[in-house]
Amino acid sequence: MRLLLAIGLLLASMIPIAHSGVASISIYYNGTVVAHFQGITSFTIIGNNVSELRVQGSKFNLTGDVLQFYNPNSSITVTYQTSFQQGVVKGSEPFNATFNFLFPPTFTLVYVSPSPQSLKVSGNLYNLTLVGDSFNIVYAPVSKPSSPIGEEDLLILIALVVSDSVLAGLVIYLYRRGRVKRVEQPQSEPRVSNVSQEAEEEETELTQETLNDRDILVLEAFKQGAKTLSDAVKATGLPKSTVYRRIKKLVRLGYLVERREKGKIWYEVGTPHGEKSEDHTNV
Predict the structure, then answer these.
(1) How much is the average pLDDT of 246-260?
(2) Residue 60 in domain
(3) How far, in Å, are 83, 98, 183, 222, 278 from residue 132 at the CA level?
(4) Above 90 in pLDDT, residue 223?
(5) Residues 262/264/269/275 CA torsion (nearest 10 deg)
(6) How confident is the model at residue 180 (pLDDT cuts 50, 70, 90)?
(7) C-alpha distances in angstroms, 144 versus 111, 140, 157, 178?
(8) Helix 213-223 and helix 240-253: axis angle, to 10°?
(9) How many domains does the chain divide into?
(10) Within 10 A of 87 (CB to CB), how many other CB atoms are there?
(11) What span, in angstroms and rounded, lies between the C-alpha atoms of 245 and 235?
């Protein structure tokens, strides 16, 4: 009996303790990374050549490619610009996280690990969701983009890519030829109500004082050299109307400054109202 009890205690000690923290990391194809944490003590930087690093909600220390948080129990947001190896996005963390990879339909997926949890259309971008402590995504540009396909179809394609490398070639071929039929919206679900609900949710976001992922993506586009509305649309891949509303919000909060001269309008990066510039060196 004592021997069985000792063996049970030994096996229990070998079982890893689940991390109680929450982590959601959004990775955009253009190199923008937006991460939200709570209960996480450290974060391993994803990508190379990090710039525009910004940490909200906690003091921090950056050692190599690891961020150490001094206030892990608070709500922490990390944003930065980075670069990836051509056609490859991968990362590894000491905790389980939800990884969101956002990419335009001009890219096709070649390999995805772990298996995707979901895929949603966000504006003109696909949002691929993975869950785990690491991820590896290989993608390639499509020379001649085909017509858009449905979410369900694309999830099936991704599952085939992950499960069988032989089928991957056929999947890519069908995707480029546009032979996959587009999923139609069920007639029982009124499209107008969905659009109205989305518009109300976006209107609520625009009145808030904090920035969400789309606000940050538009702001990063201007930090990287965009000057006009058209520049921001090309840099982010978002619809023109969405970018316009985000710009107006950023101007209202002081993140952007609107300039006008001889009928022309452009924008410059400003200083947010009531906020001082932060020192991104070790704290």
Answers:
(1) 92
(2) yes
(3) 22, 7, 29, 32, 32
(4) yes
(5) 70
(6) very low
(7) 20, 12, 18, 10
(8) 80
(9) 2
(10) 13
(11) 16
Q: What percent of the chain has pLDDT over 70?
A: 67
Between CA 48 and CA 28 the distance in angstroms is 14
| CATH number of the domain residue 248 falls in | 1.10.10.10
The torsion angles phi and psi of 140, rounded to 5 degrees, stand at -145, 150
Q: What CATH number does residue 80 fall under?
A: 2.60.40
Question: In this structure, are 163 and 258 located in the same domain?
Answer: no
DSSP string, 8-66: HHHHHHHSPPPP--EEEEEEETTSEEEEEEES--EEEPPSEEEEEEEEESS-EEEETTE
**Residue 6, H or E segment:** helix 2-14
14-18, 108-112, 206-210, 215-219: range with lowest mean pLDDT: 14-18
Per the rule left: phi > 0, alpha: psi between -120 and 50, beta: everything else, 276 is beta
Between 197 and 134, the higher pLDDT residue? 134
Average pLDDT in the chain: 78
Single pTM value for the model: 0.53
Question: Is the preceding peptide bond at 94 cis, omega within 30 degrees of 0?
Answer: no
CA gap 88, 5 in Å, rounded: 48
- Report if residue 198 sits inside a domain: no
SS3 assignment, position 252:
helix
Q: How many CB atoms lie within 10 A of CB 274?
A: 8
Per-residue pLDDT of 65-104, as tens digits, reads 999 999 989 999 999 999 998 889 999 999 999 999 998 9
Full domain range(s) for residue 95: 21-177
Tokens of 69: 């948080």
